[in-house]
Amino acid sequence: MQKKQELRGQEARTAHNSSRKLVYDYLQAQMQNGVLLPGSVLDLKGISQKLGISNTPLRDSLIQLEAEGYITIYPRSKVVVNLLEFNDFPYLYGIIGTIEALLITSALDKYDADVIREMRELNENMRQCVEAGEILLYSKYHYQFHDVFLRLNPNLLAERVIRPIKNRLWDFPRKNFIIEWYKAAVDEHECIIEAIARNDVDEICRVVKDVHWGIAHNKSYILKEYNLEES
C-alpha cells in the first residue's frame, strides 16, 4: 500500500514537473519569437487554456521566470515581461565575463587541437552568417561557441547563473541589427581562441572580461542594438 502511494506521488510530481516545463518553454519561445515583448502583460487564463494545464504548474513556471529576471509578478494584479535597461548591462556583462574567464582558465588542459578546431569552425560559421544577414543562424552558432566553456568545465552553479543571463541578452528580439557589432564579436572570438591555443591566461582574461564582455567596449553598440537610453 505504501509503495503504491509512493509511486502515485512520484507520478504526480513527474506530471507536475512536465507541465511546469511545458509552460516555461512556451513562454520563453513566445518571448524569443517576439510575440511577448518587454512590457507585455501575460494573459494567464489564455495560456492555461491553450496549454491545457492547471494554475499550479503555471504559477511555478512564472516564479522560475521571475527568478531569472524575465518577468515581474504583481500579486493579485498582473504579470509583466520585464524591460531590459542599460543599467542592467554592466552587471549582466560583468557576471558572464568573470565566470567564462574562470571556466576557461581553470580547464585549459582540456582545450586540445580538436576543440580549437571546433571553435574555429563555429566562429567561421558565425562570420559567414553575419555577412549573409542570417542572424538567427548566427545565434545558434553563438550559443554553441560559448557552450564549449561549460562543456569542458561543467559546473552547475555557473550554468545556473549565466544561462538565464545569456537567454535574456540573446533571446529577446532586438530593435536594430548593428552589423559592426557582430563582426567585432567574431574578431573577439578569434582573439579568445588564439589566447587559449597559447595557454595565455592573462590575455584570455583581458579579452573575455575587458573586451568581449567589457561594458566600456560594448556600450555604444548596446545602446544602438537595444534602442536604449543611458540613464
Q: What is the total number of structural domains?
A: 2
Beta-strand portion reads: under 5%
Weakly predicted, low-confidence segments: 3-16
Tally of helical segments: 10
The largest pleated sheet is described as:
2 strands, antiparallel
Q: What is the end-to-end distance?
A: 63 Å
Which architecture name of the largest domain does CATH use?
A: Up-down Bundle
Compressed to H and E, one letter per element, the order equals: HHHEEHHHHHHH
Question: Could you name the CATH homologous superfamily of the largest domain?
Answer: GntR ligand-binding domain-like
Classification by helices and strands: mainly alpha
GO molecular function: DNA binding; DNA-binding transcription factor activity
Protein name: GntR family transcriptional regulator
Domain HTH gntR-type: 17-84
Organism: Candidatus Desulfovibrio intestinavium
Report on the architecture of this protein.
By secondary structure, the protein is mainly alpha-helical. It has two domains: 2-81, Arc Repressor Mutant, subunit A (Orthogonal Bundle); 86-225, Up-down Bundle (Four Helix Bundle (Hemerythrin (Met), subunit A)), CATH 1.20.120. It is 71% helix and 3% strand. The chain contains ten helices and two strands. The chain has a two-stranded antiparallel ribbon with strand order 1-2. Strand 1 and strand 2 (78-81) form a beta hairpin. Helix 8 (179-197) packs antiparallel against helix 9. It holds the Pfam family GntR. Residues 17-84 form the HTH gntR-type domain. Keywords: DNA-binding, Transcription, Transcription regulation. One of its GO terms (molecular function) is DNA binding.
